[in-house]
Here is the input.
Amino acid sequence: MAIDIRKEMGPKGTVEQRIVYESGNEMAAYAAHQINYHVMGYFPISPSTEVAQFLDLMKANGQHDIVLIPADGEHGSAGVCYGASVAGGRVFNATSANGYLYMLEQMPVQSGTRFPMVMNLVCRSVSGPLDIHGDHSDLYFALNTGWPIILCRDPQAVYDMNIIALKLAEDPEVRLPVLVASDGYFTSHQKRRVHTFAHREDVLSFVGEKPPEGFVHVLDRDNPITVGPYMNEPDYINNCYQQSMAMYRAEGVYDRIRQEYAALTGRDYPLLELYRMEDAEVAVFLLNSSAEIIKDVVDQLRAKGVKAGSISPNIIRPFPAKAIAEALANVKAVTVGDRADAFGSHGGNMVLEIKAALQTYRNHSTLVVSRIYGLGGKDFYAEDGLQMFEYALDAVAKGVVEKPFDYHGHTPGDPSKAPKRVLEPMKYEELKTGLITVTPDEETGKVNVRVPPLRQLTKKPKRIAPGHGACPGCGIFSGLELFFKGIEGDMIALFHTGCAMVVTTGYPYSAHKATYIHNLFQNGAATLSGVVEMFHERKRRGELDYLGLKDDFTFVMITGDGGMDIGMGPAIGAALRNHKMIILEYDNEGYMNTGAQLSYSTPIGHRTSTSNVGKQQGGKVFHHKDTAQIMAATNIPYVFTGSEANAPDLVKKGAKAQWYAQNVGMVYGKILITCPLNWLSDDKDGATIIDQAVNSCFFPLYEVERGVTTITYNPEEKGKRVPVSDWLKTMGKTKHLSRPEYVDTLRDFEGEIERRWNMLKAKHENPYL
Here is the structure.
């Protein structure tokens, strides 16, 4: 990589600075903590998750006063941020990929009503299929949301741009929310030497001690305002015009702010980063981290006598069209690399805008080559950069661009290498054993189930092959397979995004021996609802007769890793519609797919990477969500809880769940599963921890059948109840609760467990509760 000697020699500015060695995510958090925002609404999604984690850790240690609000999903986090913004304070957020797309509805709301904030977009591939590595497909969705967008090619820029962004957002000529974009897993996780302001006071002196006094907000009782009114077309077009003018003013305001920042720090971020463009005849245009790599290639070509140069913008909204046209005025050919495709438009967004800029400023001579590269985090090497220049040099030699648009770095399909089936489909006869009998009781309306000794069920094949990549000690698959022992016949499963999904479906392989579908956290229940209704309708029309189905499928949605936070709304919707399907939640008490952040199922006081333990904070600060009771309130026919601590009970409930899902309607089940990584426990202790969770009454085993609650295992009656503190001692994430300074949190938790247990017993004793 070409070295910028100016940066390496250290800052030449007028303000005192210090050197740290951190990643892009750490520097986004570091800048935020120095600014000391009022509020951050957030939801974890890789690779941006670390930003909230670092801020929470600093919060636990008393390093800032930011109120960190864990939302139920990215749509909710965007709403939290908008609400905080209209209340006049400084607001911060970070997200990536599909999380940003889930926010997308909210983005024009915030810019259209002109309330400032700063959001970091740590760029990542947008699925499907699911890929968590870096490209710009999420960034390109942001282009039309009305937010100024500034770019960061290294961790130093992430820090600097986060400070510049707030000043830009709050400038009276702009007054818009600003997006700060960096490359996921390239910039976000690489550690580099970074120069920072040594003192928070100097940061606040630059951005302002507090938001500008003149901004309207909803907390001024003497000046009540209406935010976001219904607006007819003459007024709406005027509103959009004013917003548009503010966006174009942002270019000049940014240019002024970056010069002020350069004087302070010695680091400058002009509209365009031009490298050896003074006499360039061929050039490459790239965004963010790849633009650093291309500089090496420029130097290599210059050494061979080729007049090469590179262009990379520091801001793309507003798009610096005039500056780009001027930079390309004497260039014979330019290759524009887009790290995302604008499908069907013969190029990515950047090449289309560059072509428009050249046309606008009457440059009809520069040849433009479009190449899509680096999708899904595909590495970009100097060799790729050289090929980008070769495309431009070839156009110059021939006087024409023979292939104006193409992908770079893709592999042509080869039918002979198509994935082959590794696992044979399970036979119906293996799955329909007849060992389990389920009979409805006409008098009570309930279902009676007879389950044979578990050893007789071991002949049933496992529905998930052993070749998955779960962590040692993970309880997901032992718990799921135990539940599946109660399911007879064919099954179609939909898995939310989460650990169970990720570790079983690494393309081109799959551990699923039956049909499997994936959709994102927030929409799995709705998706499976569509599958269920299509099945029954096509069956009614006789369109599936050729398949020779022996009986109906059992449709099961598997969710976990916080999926019943972000996915709660669609799950309730599916329940109210009463589709014939099962939702099974594996509860590991965290967002484990993104690395142990708190979920709403995390109990109070428990440590996660976003509920840290320090001198100012003792783990999660609010109680866990009882999803089983929430779903029971929708009046679906069957709700249950289960665990490996009582295997026959869980198998029996699986059989009941199948009968209700095939004959009556929606079923919801919740199983507690061990997670050594989140719980900070030894993987061999999982069964003991689950058993203690049940016997402490933290996770009671019960069912709600046609509205009637029955406790299926009562540790008090068995003489096996244990103190909550005994269970907590088995996990590293809760050992701090035994310390005197956290006694109030422990008592609060114990009291809540007792309250919920007594309510459950009351419901058990009274069928009308």
About this structure: The longest strand covers residues 17-23.
